[in-house]
Amino acid sequence: VSDSVSGQTVVDPKGYLTDLNSMIPTHGGDINDIKKARLLLKSVRETNPHHPPAWIASARLEEVTGKLQVARNLIMKGTEMCPKSEDVWLEAARLQPGDTAKVVVAQAVRHLPQSVRIYIRAAELETDIRAKKRVLRKALENISKSVRLWKAAVELEEPEDARIMLSRALWLALARLETYENARRVLNKARENIPTDRHIWITAAKLEEANGNTQMVEKIIDRAITSLRANGVEINREQWIQDAEECDKAGSVATCQAIIRAVIGIGIEEEDCKHTWMEDAESCIAHGAVECARAIYAHSLQVFPSKKSVWLRAAYFEKNHGTRESLEALLQRAVAHCPKAEVLWLMGAKSKWLAGDVPAARSILALAFQANPNSEEIWLAAVKLESENNEYERARRLLAKARSSAPTARVFMKSVKLEWVLGNIEAALDLCAEALRHYEDFPKLWMMRGQIEEQIENTDRAREAYNQGLKKCPQSTPLWLLLSQLEEKAGQLTRARAILEKSRLKNQESPELWLESVRLEYRAGLKNISNTLMARALQKCPNSGILWSEAIFLEARPQRKTKSVDALKKCEHDPHVLLAVAKLFWSERKITKAREWFLRTVKIDPDLGDAWAFFYKFELQHGTEEQQEEVKKRCENAEPRHGELWCAESKHVLNWQKKIGELLLIVASKLRNTF
């Protein structure tokens, strides 16, 4: 049944559908035949769960043997695994009783809105003629070119209604075939004959747009709404938005935007507008209708010009789906309306900086200072801009001003860091001492002081700094880790162990401290103790992804798969666990599966730099040049900032936000893949 090399089935499940009757005993034959068939089908389902015929064959086997409920359960599981399979949904509808079948078909329509067979089945399930008509009319809105649907719909109508339905289809078809002038006449005639059909109006708007008359589009859509209301047609907002999305996908941008502007406010209470419109925009983005979303944001900003959250949503939308120019134009308008929103100023400055226009970034930050005097975020952004463009003297002057006019712990921290990076150790230590007089409960200052002392090999002073810091900040996990690592480097393994034990007493549910304890024993060669500690750690922090991901690779190779299953049960959506599973498949040379899990990891947490680095190294070894470039490009767009290995290396790369591709290569080259 299963090929041990690739893990793929070599049995054709489609054969089961035709051979099933010969396999299954119909008159109390050998019960072993049923068991064999069941076992075989189970194997096929497990090997390839996304293969529809396997689920259909399994359900039919249970149906023939009289286990109808088991058959229903199996086929419903099949709909979860193969939601885009028409055959599975139709089989599920066939096996379910009346009302449940209707629910199943409704779910099927949501997954497959373009399936003619599912709509026909939905109509067949309805007993009331009016309900059948309603289903088929809804179907024709989604699939207007299906002859089978038109035929089924017309057969249910009275002769007069059937004539109107067919004439509408013919008018639209005729308009598509005619020249511009004739098409206009055809559509005008169609509007006179069928004044209640919105599709004729929308087609007219699309026709004008296609011929460059964009100023007419808005008028046509507005007249459509007025005319349809006058003829007693209810304006269904969701339906119109769906039409707008279809126009967007067909390239009729002006028509889709005109529809959005015309219907976006219909039937919504004033207090619900903002929330509903933001949801509508997200929905359009999810459906790939970018211009619809842009029109919704534009309308929202006209109605709520002073709402920072709306400007931010619109800015992130332009960042992800627009151009740099469209983003900068939007941010310019945003800061005019919300001058106190620091984040909008910073986004504008960053966009200019990334494009290499440093003077423009400076001028944006200067305007931001005027609107937000003494803002810590803007001071630090200005410092970052100067230091990352090697204007260290300017950065130093800015920090001196910030310390006098807007002194905060972060401002002092950046001051210390600048001097430290530039190699002015004495100045860095002096600033650190001054900062700690004012902000002794800020753990990063103690950490920096200890690390500077370590760098100049003054171990006793580093130890003193960490210990003093821990008296003031006993909950700071990084401080405990630094002190423990200092002792380990000094060869004081017992002292390092004691420090970690003490830290765990004060922070019992800190997975980072447990992880360091496990690693300390492992580095010392005490694998049994590290395994025991890991078991205790997982009891204390059962939902910690970093612990489970480490636990997988502490196991011997044969047990790793079992451990990974346990990890996924506890932390199904944790990026560290997903990354560990990807590495596990990689180590087993299951390339396709490894790639799937890497993709899943970076999708669930694009901010985890380690995941991108492992993924890139994987593609360097097993992927094509296109795949390598794709990973690199996606990583640059994601701008990851976290990850143990990523952060350790980013410290050594100047201007690393501009050199993400370079940093990715550095981290990937230092990874070992002997898991």
UniProtKB/TrEMBL annotation:
- Please identify the protein, giving its name as recorded: PRP6 factor
Q: Does the keyword Transmembrane helix apply?
A: no
Question: Which SMART domains does the record associate with it?
Answer: HAT, TPR
Q: What keywords appear on the UniProt entry? A: mRNA processing, mRNA splicing, Nucleus, Repeat, TPR repeat
Give the family this protein belongs to, as stated in its UniProt record.
Belongs to the crooked-neck family.
Subcellular location(s): the record lists: Nucleus
Q: Spell out the PANTHER family in the cross-references.
A: PRE-MRNA SPLICING FACTOR (PTHR11246), PRE-MRNA-PROCESSING FACTOR 6 (PTHR11246:SF1)
Extent of the TPR repeats: 443-476
Organism equals Polypterus senegalus
Give residue ranges for domain Pre-mRNA-splicing factor Syf1/CRNKL1-like C-terminal HAT-repeats.
180-332
- What lineage is this protein's organism placed in? Eukaryota, Metazoa, Chordata, Craniata, Vertebrata
